[in-house]
Amino acid sequence: MRAEIVPGAPFPDFDLPDHTGKHRKLSEIQGTDPMIVMLSRGAYCPKDRRQLEGLLQLHRELEVGYCRLVTISSDNLLETNESRSGIGAHWPFLSDPARKVQKDLDIAEYTDPTHNPMIPHTLVLAPGLIVHKIYNGYWFFGRPTPEELRHDVRAVLEKCRPDWDITQAELKAAWARGDKDRFYPYGKTHAQVFAEQR
Question: Please, what are the domains in the chain?
Answer without folding.
Answer: 15-160 (3.40.30.10)
